[in-house]
Amino acid sequence: MMLFHSEANPNFEPSPEEIQAEVKAWQDWMGGIAAQGKLKNPGEALGFEGKTMHADGAITDGPYAELKEMIGGFIIVTAESIDEAIKLANGCPALSSGGKVEVRDIMVFEGM
User: Which pLDDT value is given to residue 112?
Assistant: First the structure.
């Protein structure tokens, strides 16, 4: 799984052209992974609203505006190793805007 992190910027208001260019960059990058047969799930972009349930039953609002970093979305790829997945992350549009890509393995439980 690749999780896309970026700096939180509540004042960022991109123009329609900037949005279109960003969407195309993501489509091109993910299309390259798909062309290799490595895109298992195209994932989703995450919204800006949410809540967190804590072990004690407390519920807090989030994600929090005071956070410096936010997770903007994810995809699931097929790779033989974390190193191969890192190579697939190369060129991710999140990187060009100062973000980062977190690559994680997904545990598979038999019978589930």
Answer: 67
